[in-house]
Every structure is written in structure tokens, then in C-alpha cells.
Amino acid sequence: MYIDPTRYATRPTDDRIPQELAIYDRLEALSIPYVRVDHDRADTIEICHEVERILGSEICKNLFLCNRQQTDFYLLMMPGDKPFKTKYLSAQLGCSRLSFADDSHMRDYLQTVPGSVSALELLFDTENRVKLVIDRDLLADEYISGHPGISTSTLQLKREDLLRFIESAGHSPTYIELPDPREEV
Q1: pTM over 0.90
Q2: Which of 17, 65, 146, 181 shows the smallest number of beta carbons within 10 Å?
Q3: Is 120 helix (H, G, I), strand (E, B) or coil?
């Protein structure tokens, strides 16, 4: 498992995918500072925990969801350690039961692939096809971390800076309060 323990405050200088570079361009245009950690694909919880240790904050969970008809799409941001149950989110949004959206919609709307999605990719959703939904529990943290278009880097941003980035991409979040299923009786 490769994880560079260095915390970078600048964009990478090696070859990166265009989507990742576009995210760095927008961050720089908005003068938003960030901390970057590079690593192997973060597709295991062990890698995510190691990245969290280096960053000093948790990585949030980002779920790309859609309704049964695949006409409404949602990007849900929530605490990484909190279990997710679709029934709670569907009820709060007043929509049919949600499920995970397919890879092709993620590529079409957010220009990314499963395992790499974060709110930073809303930059590419210029037609506002994806609605951002944020669990209020996530707002308790000073920092929010996510991938910049690819799961081989993780960026840590201050909560307010990430929200400013999202607004600059033309998206306004919907805030919800997801109960923690571990606390159900």
C-alpha cells in the first residue's frame, strides 16, 4: 500500500487527468487553500484510515444516488463512519426510494468514476443535473476531505471553503439530518 506521508499545499507537478487539473484551477481561482495527500487508489477502508491519520481529519462519504426512474440524481455527503439507509434520505427528500446511480451517469454528469466521486466534481455538472445533499452531522467538522476527480489523491478543505467552491459551481446544497441506524432501538 503506497501512501505518501507528505502533506502538500500546492497542486501536483506530475501528469494528472484533466478533471483533477480543472479542480486545482478552480481552487486557485477562488484562492481556496487545501492540503493534499497522494496515495494508491483509496478503495479500501485501511487506505482511507491511513490518509485520515496523515490529514488529521476524517474523509467524508460521498454517495451518488438516483430515483427509480433515473431522472433525479443526488450526491449525498455524510460522515464516513455513519451507516447509510436509503429510506431515511428518500423520506426527507420526498422522493421514491433511492438507489446507487450507474457508472455512466456518474461519468456523464460528474466526469468521474465510482470510488472517486466528491463534491468537487460538481464543477463539471454545468446543467445542474445532480442535487447536492449534505447530512448536517458533517458540518460539525472544521474540515471536509474528498478526492479531486480521482481516488489517488485526497484534498482536505475547510468546510466553508468547500461550500464556497460548490456555490461557485452553481450548486446550492440541501441540508438534511440523517438518523444514525446504530442508535435505533
Answers
A1: yes
A2: 181
A3: helix
From CA 177, how far away is CA 180, in angstroms rounded? 9
Q: Which three cell numbers stand for residue 94?
A: 420526498
DSSP-assigned letters across all residues of 49-86 = HHHHHHHTSPBPEEEEEE-TTS--EEEEEE-TTS---H
* Cα(181)–Cα(85) distance, integer angstroms: 7
pLDDT surpasses 60 at 96: yes
Residues 128-142: tens digit of each pLDDT: 999 999 999 999 999
Helix, strand, coil % in the chain, rounded to nearest 5? 35, 20, 45
Place of cell 446543467: 127
3-state DSSP assignment of residue 155 = strand
User: In sequence order, which residues have a C-beta less than 8 Å from that of residue 165 and are 6 or more positions away?
Assistant: 26, 27, 30, 32, 119, 120, 123, 157
148: alpha, beta or left? (left if phi > 0; alpha if psi -120 to 50): beta
